[in-house]
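Below is one record:
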Amino acid sequence: MKIVHAIARLNLGGAALSVLELAAGQQERGHEVLVVAGTIPPGEASMESVAAELDVPYLRMPALRRELSPRDDLRATAGLRRLLRARRPDVLHTHTSKAGATGRIAALASWPARPGAVVHTFHGHVLSGYFDGRRERAFRLIERALAHGTDRIIAVSEQVRDDLLHFRVARPDKIEVVHYGFGLDRRVAGAPGSRAARRGLLGAGDHDFVVGWAGRLSEIKRPLDLVRVAANVPQSLLVLAGDGELRPQVERLAAELGLEERIHLLGYIEDLGAWYGAFDAFLLTSANEGAPVVAIEALAAGLPVVATDAGGTRTVVDHTESGYLAAIGDVDELARRLRELRDDAEVRRRLGETGSVRMRERFSAGRMVDETEAVYLRALSR
């Protein structure tokens, strides 16, 4: 098959990584694949190097941007339309809201060269929890309209699928669940001695309890809750790998609570896999998640995960078996669970071992490629 993937940007995050892993796996199976991605905004880290590492053909389309811009959106739609007419792929597979909109409109406008199948993946959604009610209602109407021109919709978790059904985005028979898949051994491997080296950078000794987090310091991730949790877990260090618009507020709250020595902000880092080995547990405080890739990776690295029960997180974290789930905003419960892990190395080991095995069973790249190809074949035979 000839396959074109379109995504708004290859920034550091689960959506971009899964697209690249999927494209690499499809290419290994003999399909002709191209990934089209847009501009990465200032201040965000890029995963374009991963495309090169996986040998995935990649075309940058500067007009394709996450931000709303009528002029650029029209240019991106026209550019994708020209691309589809020139390449005539069997499948156009779009990812994320902006590429999903421009790509699917381009497919409709490319007639009679419309791809044989148009597939869109919701890696999460902005249908609730991100914007005010008026804008959310507008996004729901847009997604419903776009779904009419889509042959199959993929959700990355059962929770995302259920949300799409709740908001009446599409009929149940059009939506399928395909969980993420990654080359986890490669993603979480650390060089020998990296644990001691990175803990040394933090000033942490062998017996210190180090908690990790990774992501964008934005409202949906509730990073101020990270600081509040840390304040309730004495004798611990919290390491934040990432950056974003709320970094000044995070730093301010940490200072107000006297936590400057116990909270380390690394900014964006490319070798996150090596850092997992430096942590003793992993924390997520998000208000919404599609399927949190950092939790998948942390568990694969043998870390217990304490997280809010947000979106698709329960698809990843098995409560009391590989980690713990708490209600969104329940800082006290998150802190209590971390204190339990701090004080019981045997529980940490047991939860971590369970998570490591289950992530490799549940989130393999080969399984994701198989299931996605099956979706394509069903869409093409409609």
